[in-house]
Design a protein that fits this description.
With about 100 residues, the chain is α+β, with helices and mostly antiparallel strands. Helices cover about 55% and strands about 15% of the residues. Strands 1-2-3 form a three-stranded mixed sheet. The longest helix has 24 residues.
Length: about 100
């Protein structure tokens, strides 16, 4: 049973408790990672990005350009680090570019 919050709780604390009690964190991570990808990669990469999916701790990115996929494959560890820094916690451990 979740602990009851008093009337002076912040909205953020109440929302965080709802997310924890209803086990919504994986879905929230999916949304956060997709937004972080779009913010960090910029319009050039976003144009060629077809799909971004987080499964577990692996980020799968479908790209429409083989050249871009090859270029980004050289910086996978940097991409992981940038996304995790953007989110403020370690969500992504690996990136698979398709």
């Amino acid at each position: 049973m979740a602990k009851r919050l008093n009337n002076e709780s912040t909205i953020g604390a109440v929302l965080q408790q709802i997310i924890q009690v209803n086990k919504l964190q994986p879905g929230m991570d999916q949304i956060d990672v997709k937004e972080a990808w779009e913010n960090l990669m910029g319009n050039g990469v976003k144009t060629y990005t077809r799909n971004v999916v987080l499964k577990g701790s692996t980020l799968y990115v479908e790209l429409g350009s083989a050249v871009l996929r090859e270029e980004l494959s050289h910086g996978k560890s940097k991409i992981v680090k940038m996304i995790n820094e953007e989110l403020g916690r370690e969500v992504v451990k690996d990136v698979v570019l398709r």
